[in-house]
Write a structure and sequence with these properties.
Elements lengths: L7 E10 L5 E6 L12 E4 L2 E4 L11 E6 L1 H6 L10 E5 L19 E10 L9 E6 L2 H4 L7 E4 L2 E9 L2 E6 L1 H6 L10 E6 L1 H11 L7 H6 L3
Antiparallel strand pairs: 1-2, 1-6, 2-5, 3-4, 3-6, 7-8, 7-12, 8-11, 9-10, 9-12, 10-11
């Protein structure tokens, strides 16, 4: 489990297709050196991935992860190019404060940035207004003042209008994450609030029909 509070950013080194057909993502993350081990989970732009053995101990600030077909289908990770900045978070440990909201690292789908504009002229200290166009199925799961995860960042929804949401970004979040590298039209990973999803599901369907099979069929 994660919180959506980004610990650091990393830089994509490569995204390669192995002879087996598996796509492997390699990321440089010096700030995480010594803090993860083989098999640990690391959230990359909000996607929970498993760190694998690089076979090269001379670069402790790097990690790699293989992308499953479900990850390829649901996320933006295969659109990453070398040099791209990605948001990184290690899992929440027992006893740590839950400063953001409950984030699973299970991306629901992708969306597109409509605009990201400063509210004031001082670009170092201004808040920013972020607008995102969501697919209809995801927009139905979002409410004003509710939580949402955008590329792994825990954010609060300021407004919802049709399939678009508006979020106010504070200067720290803008500069400390990949948001300052994104443009209108950029794709982002979206995870809606898991508590809101289950609440809506329980309200819409009798408990007796909430079988494991029905949950899987709905993407849970």
């Amino acid at each position: 489990m994660f919180t959506g509070l980004i610990e650091t950013t990393g830089t994509v080194l490569s995204l390669k297709t192995l002879p087996s057909g598996v796509q492997r993502l390699t990321v440089s993350a010096p700030a995480l050196a010594g803090r993860w081990k083989l098999g640990d989970s690391i959230a990359v732009n909000g996607v929970c991935l498993t760190a694998i053995d690089l076979g090269d101990e001379s670069h402790p600030g790097r990690f790699a992860a293989d992308l499953a077909q479900e990850t390829i289908a649901r996320t933006t990770l295969t659109s990453l190019t070398p040099g791209a900045l990605v948001n990184l978070e290690l899992p929440l440990t027992s006893g740590s404060p839950l400063g953001g909201h409950v984030v699973q690292g299970h991306v629901d789908g992708t969306a597109s940035i409509v605009s990201l504009i400063p509210l004031y002229q001082d670009l170092d200290h201004t808040d920013w207004r972020l607008r995102i166009a969501l697919p209809p199925g995801l927009a139905a799961q979002v409410i004003p003042q509710g939580s949402i995860t955008v590329d792994g960042i825990s954010l609060t929804v300021a407004a919802v209008q049709d399939n678009e949401i508006e979020i106010v970004i504070i200067p720290h979040t803008y500069h400390a994450t990949n948001l300052h590298t994104l443009l209108a039209g950029s794709p982002v990973n979206i995870e809606t609030d898991v508590l809101a999803k289950y609440t809506a599901l329980r309200a819409a369907e009798p408990t007796s029909t909430l079988t494991t099979e029905s949950l899987i069929a709905r993407g849970y």
